[in-house]
Structure formats: structure tokens, C-alpha cells
Amino acid sequence: MNAAHKAADLSALRQRAIDAARQAYAPYSNLSVGAALRSARGEVYAGCNVENGAYPIGGCAERGAIATAVQAEGKDFRLAAIAVAAFAVDGTPLPVSPCGACRQALVEFGADAQVTFLQADGSWIEVDAGALLPYRFILPEQ
Ligand SMILES: [Zn+2]
Known about the structure:
Strands 1, 2, 3, 4, 5 and 6 form a six-stranded mixed beta sheet that branches. This protein has one domain (about 5-130): 3-Layer(aba) Sandwich (Cytidine Deaminase, domain 2). By secondary structure, it is α+β, with helices and mostly antiparallel strands. It has four helices and six strands.
């Protein structure tokens, strides 16, 4: 994939993440998060945060998208890229990056995957998943 295609791909993923954030169930934090990922096969899957009155069982947008991708592609799913966007109730973009648990989930499926997330000024940060979690957990072989 050349640079122009890659940029267009990220642009489409970013829009899907913004769209997914509109579906968020976030009555407690009022932070609506959307994520859209592209698998190595080229398919796109989205997720949003889903909160719960029992706070710890709420789920993140990124891991929601990953669960959907694994359900569709099975154990061979590999992550190529993911975009994440978060908004306040009034639609103002809020600066977020994937949380620690999601970083671990991202590197499980693609340490070299592109990760892009929206900032408050409307710009997008781009980084490799592995760079977000350099000392990630790796299950030791026994
Ligand atoms: Zn998370």
C-alpha cells in the first residue's frame, strides 16, 4: 500500500471512529468513545464504549472493536490499524489515547499496527501500537 492509500485509509477509519462514538453508552462519564479498526484482511470493524452502573464492568471502544473483529475473522485476526475518537456530550472532541488495558489488547493482535487518536484541537496523533506499550506483558513459555 502506498503512502497516499495509507493516508486515505486512515482518513476513512477516523471517520468511522467518529461515527462509532455517536453510538456510545456513556451515561456516567459522559465521555463517548468510538474506535474503528482495519484488519490485515482489509475489513473494518467498529466499537464504542459501553458503561455500566457497576463501573468496573464497563467496556472500552477499542476492545469492543477487537471482539467484533475476532468474532468475524476468528483466531487469524490481525490488526493493521485502529482509530480512536472521544467526545464530550456537546460534541467537543476530547484528547484521549487507548488505556493501558486496550494497549495490551492492541499489541496482542498487531504490535506494528498503526494507532491514531483524536486530540482536542482536531489533530490526530499517529503511533505504532508497540510504541504505546514498550514493556508489554508477554506470557512466558513454559
Ligand atoms: Zn481501554
